[in-house]
Design goal:
There is one protein chain. This protein is 13% helix and 38% strand. The protein contains 15 helices and 83 strands. The two termini are 58 Å apart. It has 9 domains: 400 residues, Alpha-Beta Barrel (TIM Barrel); 85 residues, Immunoglobulins (Immunoglobulin-like), CATH 2.60.40.10; 110 residues, Immunoglobulin-like (Sandwich), CATH 2.60.40; 85 residues, Immunoglobulins (Immunoglobulin-like, Sandwich), CATH 2.60.40.10; 85 residues, Immunoglobulin-like (Sandwich), CATH 2.60.40.10; 86 residues, Immunoglobulins (Immunoglobulin-like, Sandwich), CATH 2.60.40.10; 77 residues, Immunoglobulins (Immunoglobulin-like), CATH 2.60.40.10; 112 residues, Sandwich (Immunoglobulin-like), CATH 2.60.40; and more. The radius of gyration is 39 Å and the shape is globular. The strands form 24 sheets. The chain has an 8-stranded parallel beta sheet. The chain has a 5-stranded mixed beta sheet with strand order 26-32-31-28-29, with no helix packed on it. It has a 5-stranded mixed beta sheet with strand order 69-75-74-71-72, with no helix packed on it. Strand 38 and strand 39 form a beta hairpin. With 1252 residues, the chain is mainly β. GO terms for molecular function: beta-galactosidase activity; calcium ion binding. It comes from Arundinibacter roseus. One of its GO terms (biological process) is carbohydrate metabolic process.
Length: 1252
């Protein structure tokens, strides 16, 4: 962990793993550390990284034990035990440290590091084994191996086994606390997250693993998941035609793009399972050596944004079968939250934390980290980066303090009263756990005690955690809307509360036509009057729901409009500034210009508008032609400071004739200089009328934004006229009303300048009963015909706020079933889906109902064996895998939900329908397979598995990728890659589809390929002794290509660059004479050259290297545009040809070509945006993404409104790029308007500026 990452920065540690200081220190221990007390002990350990090969660590261990350390986390580094392949094992250093730890009365913790400093180029691993980043870079030092390369995984696992066998005696003596295996350069388990980015030539974040092994494994994984391309393309919204075409997602230099879209989620899941598989392999190896070993995972983090790159967000699943988890938090991380998270989801397992000695963080930060971890239930804290003589003193006193404080008592059981939760899909999509951290912080601040933090790993198939239903916390108030007028009501988020999670959102039913729910806001225009009961249902993060209702009364008149503030001007020069809404404040740059107010209907058509504005500036006007403006089309004024009221009326016909469509009053404030004049508060949200019941407690807080202050802040709220029994405290109204009646309540807001404003609303107190409501979730039910069924509706499904539920009645039950209150029971006699209605009635006979389904299924039929299983043969000591065919079993009335496989020989296990492993027993075995349906009925079948004595398979050398070129004969004989081809008769067969045009004849492949692509190949070699080997390689079929290479000519030959079509080459980068050579992937005998431009030349070359000019001759480059054509022949047959154009220029600050008109499009130009702008003489406009070439007219106008002459020959459209020569049209500097008319009549107007 030599580098610490936070969401904001990267901090490189002072105690760097790669380079360790060579200082030494001899210290004699003054005392022995005390072993942890019995029960559930705490550990305070020191990490010994062993990046040096000497005894310098021993005195530090003695000194640490004297200070109070009671355990040592010893790195068992692969490269220290085996310095190179074939070298003898060297256990001397680690054995001395283990012996000293026991002598010091300290526990040993083994951290086995399978990354190596020689992982890089030409190092321990073959090139194809090394992980590759999304950008194509390999990690280098400590890069490790691809988890998908099974040979590498087995080799690393073999080293793990060797270490555990070596320390088995100490384990059996009780000297080892636990072990872990790590693989990254940060000394953690997971995928690497950083490396050297060759594109930007610096160290940075990276996402792994895009190696050949990983990509192939991903293709196999998605094929196994989706079964066919139709399912995959539907899920991914893709159009793949072959599984072999699939590549993991990645956008260059965007590490987070690896999780974009559905394919990104699958790429995350695939890597999660790859990581889990290797962890489970290490665990199985550990337990096979000695089951008493305890195994923990050692992760950088499992909740920060970088955990998306590590693939550790799903830590619960990754910690299956482990004995605990340690996190290596940065000092800035929320240690209390982290400890709560691990403790809550891994109950009874070891919870560890690590502090890092990086960047002189300081003792106080370390102290807080340790205290917070232990206070929230951690079992263990490790000191990292303190194992050298120069850095240990920084933590020595703190070790004494923390050992005295925490190590004399066992870990106490944490009792929590608060719970928050989140899902794995939430963490992946949101880039970490910041949302649940916020919810955790809210709960923690209430009690300052540990909080239960539950993770639901929904992406991994986890479906439930113990969930408490959400509740209605505050009843919703009735609302009033006006027909055809814009209505908006924000549902208070405090109306609902979830005791163990959070509310994810709400839905609304019963809304009148024209209104809809957006987020927590109901808005729109109701088109008819009426009374509506609106049901609001809130859903928590586990899918549980609760509902409440309010009444919405829709009454008659007016409709709203869209009101916009514009900078005044004609259609070319006016500019949109902002929308204006009720209570808005206009200030600053918005009003420091001549302004106009334009209005348009939100929907439908309007014939005319009338306007009446009063305030510091008053005006009345009308407009019958769009755009409808307060000051007409082109007029405007400078608005003065003050309060304005704008009345807007719309009519069906022009000239204010026909029916009145709407009438709208809009109030807004203009602030020019808020220091000279105090403006009063402005009413922003009109309080809704309230309702309450006598004798029932009532509490409601008016919106904080009921009033807003345009130039200061609100000092106080005063509420008067409340019903008896209620009082106002700021915006809070509370109490128990005692008198029924209708009251007018006055609300006054006063600002910091002493100005005030008021509003009123009605408060109705009634003695009438409030009906019950639905407060829980009722799932759909299922039963089987002719079998007894019983279900009781839970008591928390219905609630009554002012009384009690007196009865529950269920309607719609099928024949044979009856309801008795909340109990549904009986023996259903009819198959079908039945809609049931549960009606709850309160003690005053008001009721509410809830609809749910009961599905009665026919009598279950057991599964059938559809196809017999074939007998199988395996070799002892060799990897074996057999997948039961999907069509083995059939269930006619349900589905096969699980399989049970028994009778397997030692070394083989079954998971799902896959049998795999390495058998260790020989003989014949009867394997029994049971298939269970969704009703637990089953059928069984069997097959014979013969395990033979192992025969060594044929040995082979790795086969490189093979290149084939279309139109060119291909030949390859795989036999040459087998080592025993001369001593044993080999039979070769191919188990994969060959590229079109290529055929197999025994071991030989030949033909003329006809389709470009990468073709994975699998060859099976069987020798005369029965041994078999599968060999994988690729055939890459390419079209014949010609690469144009620019070389220095003469004695100083050498490549200058490759030339592509449309390239622009600076003359200053070229030598005095140059030559052009052709490179190709095809078999070519002759090249014909033809070059025109400033230099003209024709010629041919009949031998490689194929040069435009013979020998060391060449041409002197001149400025201009060149046309270059080459034709390649094989004998007399044309193989391929290529024509390009390139330019040689004289480069200065701005590229200029002498005598050549130059247009250089911006690489990612914005549509309809001129460039360069300002310009000198020439302008370009990207008018479409691609393929657009139809403009009807191009015009240039002065800002005064005069059209300027633009000859048709001075503009053209090439592809999607408009190019203009304005040297004659705009001879003088200034601002001009460029107006473009498309074929469909649409116009675009853009401003361009000519430079002086």
């Amino acid at each position: 962990m030599n580098v610490f990452y936070t969401p904001k920065k990267v901090v490189f540690g002072a105690g760097c793993i790669l380079l360790a200081c060579m200082w030494s220190l001899k210290v004699v221990a003054t005392g022995n550390a005390a072993l942890p007390p019995p029960g559930n002990p705490r550990y305070l350990s020191l990490s010994i990284m062993n990046v040096e090969s000497n005894d310098n660590y021993l005195p530090i261990m003695e000194r640490a034990a004297a200070a109070g350390i009671n355990s040592f986390l010893l790195n068992v580094n692969w490269e220290r035990i085996y310095s190179k392949r074939g070298a003898p094992a060297n256990w001397d250093q680690i054995d001395k440290q283990a012996a000293l730890a026991v002598q010091l009365n300290c526990k040993i913790m083994l951290r086995i590091w399978v990354a190596r400093h020689d992982d890089g180029n030409e190092g321990w691993w073959p090139e194809q084994t090394r992980p590759i980043s999304g950008n194509g870079d390999k990690k280098g030092l400590l890069g490790g191996f691809s988890f998908s390369d099974q040979n590498a995984v087995e080799e690393a696992n073999g080293f793990v086994r060797e270490v555990l066998e070596h320390f088995k005696g100490r384990q059996q003596a009780g000297q080892i606390a636990f072990v872990t295996v790590i693989n990254t350069s940060h000394a953690e388990i997971g995928f690497n997250i950083d490396g050297y980015n060759s594109a930007i030539q610096q160290h940075g974040l990276m996402v792994f693993d895009y190696s050949y092994h990983s990509r192939r494994a991903f293709q196999d994984w998605v094929q196994n998941k989706y079964k066919n391309l139709s399912n995959l393309n539907q899920a991914w919204n893709s159009d793949f035609s072959r599984f072999s075409d699939i590549s993991p997602p990645y956008i260059y230099n965007d590490v987070w793009s690896a999780t974009y879209g559905a394919i990104g989620k699958d790429w995350y899941l695939f890597r999660h399972y790859e990581l889990k598989n290797i962890i489970q392999k290490f665990i199985a190896t550990t337990k096979s050596v000695d089951p008493s070993y305890k195994y923990i995972n050692d992760m950088g983090s499992c909740y920060d944004p970088l955990s998306i790159l590590r693939i550790t967000l799903g830590f619960k699943d990754l910690c299956e079968n482990t004995d605990g988890l340690k996190l290596n938090d940065n000092y800035e991380y929320p240690h209390r939250f982290a400890t709560d998270l691990v403790r809550s989801n891994l109950p009874g397992k070891i919870v560890g934390q690590e502090i890092g000695n990086v960047n002189a963080i300081g003792e106080q930060n370390w102290r807080e980290h340790i205290n917070e971890a232990f206070e929230h239930g951690a079992d263990w804290v490790n000191f990292f980066g303190f194992d050298q003589s120069f850095n240990f003193p920084a933590g020595e006193n703190l070790i004494r303090e923390m050992a005295a404080k925490w190590l004399n008592s066992p870990v106490q059981q944490i009792q929590t009263t608060q719970t928050v939760s989140y899902t794995l899909s939430e963490a992946v999509s949101q880039g970490g756990t910041s949302s649940v951290q916020g919810r955790w912080r809210t709960e923690y601040n209430k009690t300052r005690r540990p909080v239960k933090v539950l993770l639901l790993e929904d992406m991994l198939g986890e479906t439930t955690i113990a969930n408490q239903l959400p509740v209605v916390q505050t009843p919703l108030m009735n609302q009033l809307a006006t027909v055809s007028q814009w209505f908006q009501y924000e549902i208070p988020t405090q109306a609902f509360r979830d005791p163990d999670g959070f509310i994810t959102g709400i839905t609304a039913t019963g809304l009148p036509t024209g209104l809809s729910l957006s987020g927590w806001r109901i808005e729109g225009k109701a088109f008819a009057t009426g009374e509506h009961t609106i049901t609001i249902t809130a859903t928590d993060n586990s899918g549980a729901k609760v509902s409440t209702t309010f009444k919405l009364s829709v009454t008659g008149t007016s409709s709203g409009n869209i009101v916009s503030l514009f900078k005044a001007g004609n259609f070319l020069t006016r500019r949109f500034v902002r929308y204006i809404q009720e209570g808005d404040t206009l200030r600053g740059e918005d009003i420091r210009q001549t302004s106009n107010i334009l209005v348009s209907p939100r929907s439908g058509a309007v014939g005319s508008y009338s306007f009446a504005m009063s305030g510091p500036y008053s005006i009345s006007s009308e407009d019958s032609q769009a755009p409808y403006g307060l000051f007409g089309d082109n007029g405007g004024v400078m608005l003065k400071s003050g309060n304005y009221t704008l009345t807007i009326k719309s009519y069906v016909q022009a000239n204010l004739k026909g029916s009145l469509l709407s009438e709208q009053v809009l109030r807004f404030v203009v602030v020019e200089n808020s220091q000279n004049q105090n403006l009063p508060p402005v009413l922003h949200k009109v309080p809704a009328d309230l309702f309450a019941k006598t004798g029932q407690p009532f509490a409601l807080r008016l919106s904080d934004s009921t009033f807003i202050d345009p130039d200061g802040f609100l000092n106080s709220f005063t509420i008067t006229g409340l019903p008896d029994g209620l009082r106002g405290d700021g915006t809070l109204i509370s109490g128990t009303p005692t008198q029924k009646g209708i009251y007018t309540v006055n609300v006054r807001a006063t600002d910091n300048g002493g100005s005030s404003s008021e509003t009123k609303f009605k408060f109705t107190i009634s003695a009438d009963n409030i009906p019950p409501y639905v407060s829980g979730r009722l799932s759909n039910l299922s039963a089987e015909i002719n079998k007894p069924f019983s279900y009781t509706i839970p008591g928390n499904i219905f609630s009554d706020s002012d009384g009690q539920i007196s009865s529950v009645t269920v309607l719609g039950l099928p024949e044979g079933m009856s309801g008795n209150g909340s109990l549904i029971s009986g023996v259903p006699k009819k198959v079908g889906v039945f809609q049931l209605i549960a009606i709850a009635t309160d003690n005053e006979n008001a009721s509410v109902q809830l609809t749910f389904q009961l599905t009665v299924f026919p009598e279950n039929k057991a599964p059938l064996v559809a196809k017999a299983l074939t007998d199988q043969v395996a070799d002892s000591g060799a990897v074996f895998s057999y997948v039961l065919p999907d069509d083995t079993f059939l269930d006619t009335d349900g589905e096969i939900t699980r399989l049970e496989i028994s009778g397997l020989p030692a070394g083989l296990t079954a998971q799902g329908k896959t049998i795999g492993g390495t058998p260790t027993q020989t003989g014949e075995f009867l394997v029994v397979v049971k298939a269970f349906d969704n009703k637990e009925a089953f059928v069984q079948t069997s097959f014979k598995l013969t395990v033979r004595k192992n025969v060594a398979p044929p040995a082979f050398n790795r086969i490189p990728d093979l290149l084939a070129v279309m139109g060119q004969v291909f030949y390859f004989d795989i036999l040459q890659y087998f080592k025993d081809a001369q001593t044993s008769t080999l039979t070769i067969s191919y188990a994969s589809a060959l590229p079109p045009g290529i055929t197999a004849n025994g071991s030989r492949l030949s033909g003329n390929p006809t389709a470009v692509g990468e073709y994975p190949m699998k060859a099976i070699a069987r020798d005369s002794k029965g041994g078999t080997t599968e060999v994988e390689f690729r055939i890459i079929v390419q079209k014949p290509e010609l690469r144009v290479m620019l070389h220095k000519a003469g004695g100083a030959s050498g490549v200058i660059r490759e030339i592509a079509n449309a390239d622009i080459i600076a003359l200053s980068t070229l030598s005095d004479t140059v030559n052009i050579f052709i490179e190709s992937n095809a078999n070519i005998t002759t090249i014909m050259f033809e070059m025109t431009g400033p230099v003209t030349y024709k010629g041919s070359d009949e031998a490689a290297p194929f040069g435009l000019y013979p020998g060391t001759s060449g041409f002197k480059p001149r400025v201009g545009t060149y046309q270059f054509k080459v034709t390649a022949y094989r004998n007399t047959t044309v193989v391929t040809s290529r024509t390009i154009q390139f330019d040689i220029i004289v480069a200065s600050n701005t590229p200029v070509r002498e005598g050549v008109v130059e247009y250089i499009p911006a690489p990612a130009a914005e549509l309809w945006k001129p460039f360069p702008n300002p310009y000198t003489n020439r302008v370009q406009v990207q008018i479409a993404a691609e393929g657009y070439s139809s403009l009807k007219a191009v015009e240039v106008w002065s800002v005064e409104g005069a059209q300027l002459p633009l000859p048709a020959s001075n503009w053209r459209v090439e592809g999607a790029l408009l190019e203009l020569d304005l040297s004659q049209t705009t001879p003088t500097p200034g601002t001009y308007i460029l107006r473009l008319t498309e074929d469909n009549g649409k116009q675009k107007a853009v401003k361009i500026v000519k430079m002086p």
